[in-house]
């Protein structure tokens, strides 16, 4: 399966204004992210473009390897992708270098930059859309919202989205084993508490879009998108290897949790099936920059 994502990680999400050190959790996983994480449907980007009054500039925060950044080119004249991880941005620049046509390459810029500092690399009130795909739960929230408010034009949009753990509609035994593995990570506290809670709750409890800015949430929320792929068992193992909890167990606890659980997951895999269907549900929240008229 060919997949990718966009999430690189500063320190865990916080609503305070205090500066937090950057912790690069995913730079070494750029190749795995590209291969095993889900891509986002064209309809998602088309929906956002339809909500924007102008289509000059889009900015993708937590751009990771550039998957969402490049997809925005179908709707915007110029796109900027930022990420605090040098490893992820290097992978994004490789993706850009491989793109066909100088016109495409000239329309995209990738910058190593924490989300809360995006106003240092993007001009004020110059942006029509800011996107954050499966990443904002890692951000320092209030400073990020303030920076986004500064770079957005009036009526510009901030769109954030996430996907909880995948499901296996045609494989109930695998679904049960997968869920047990996920809960095992929780029980041993390898997940980052509130951060994972934000994702599990589809960002419903994530503070958004902050206070003290011109950002106001647009309601009702968009209907979720469903992404369906086919996985081999190796795809499943590769996907689990991209989870921050798995990396934390390995790096801090010396535990190869995927290795320990691979037998149980293999036993739950449908017999005589080389591939199974896997689904993610993508949930989005959108805010608009509103400026008072005098």
Automatic annotation (TrEMBL):
GO biological process: methylation
Record SUPFAM superfamilies: S-adenosyl-L-methionine-dependent methyltransferases
Family membership: Belongs to the methyltransferase superfamily.
Domain of life of the native organism: Eukaryota
Protein name: S-adenosyl-L-methionine-dependent methyltransferase
Gene Ontology molecular function, alphabetical: S-adenosylmethionine-dependent methyltransferase activity
Keywords: Methyltransferase, Transferase
UniProt xrefs under Gene3D superfamilies: Vaccinia Virus protein VP39
Domain Methyltransferase type span(s) in chain numbering: 59-160
């Amino acid at each position: 399966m060919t997949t990718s994502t966009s999430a690189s990680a500063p320190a865990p999400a916080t609503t305070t204004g205090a500066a937090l050190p950057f912790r690069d959790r995913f730079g070494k996983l750029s190749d795995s992210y590209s291969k095993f994480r889900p891509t986002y449907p064209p309809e998602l980007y088309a929906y956002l473009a339809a909500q924007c009054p102008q289509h000059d500039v889009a900015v993708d925060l937590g751009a990771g390897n550039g998957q969402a950044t490049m997809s925005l080119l179908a709707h915007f004249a110029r796109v900027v992708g930022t990420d605090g991880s040098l490893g992820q941005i290097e992978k994004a620049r490789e993706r850009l270098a491989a793109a066909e046509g100088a016109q495409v390459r000239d329309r995209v810029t990738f910058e190593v930059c924490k989300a809360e500092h995006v106003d240092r690399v993007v001009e004020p009130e110059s942006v029509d859309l800011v996107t954050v795909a499966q990443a904002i739960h890692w951000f320092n929230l209030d400073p990020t919202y303030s920076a986004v408010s500064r770079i957005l034009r009036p009526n510009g949009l901030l769109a954030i989205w996430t996907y909880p753990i995948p499901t296996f509609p045609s494989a109930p035994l695998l679904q049960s084993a997968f869920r047990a593995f996920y809960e095992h990570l929780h029980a041993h506290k390898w997940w980052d508490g509130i951060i994972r809670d934000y994702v599990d709750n589809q960002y419903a409890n994530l503070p958004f879009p902050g206070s003290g800015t011109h950002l106001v949430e647009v309601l009702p929320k968009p209907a979720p998108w469903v992404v369906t792929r086919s996985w081999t068992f190796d795809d499943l193992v590769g996907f689990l290897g991209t989870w921050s909890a798995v990396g934390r167990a390995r790096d801090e606890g010396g535990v190869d949790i995927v290795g320990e659980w691979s037998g149980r997951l293999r036993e739950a895999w449908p017999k005589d099936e080389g591939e199974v269907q896997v689904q993610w549900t993508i949930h989005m929240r959108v805010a608009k920059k509103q400026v008072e008229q005098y």
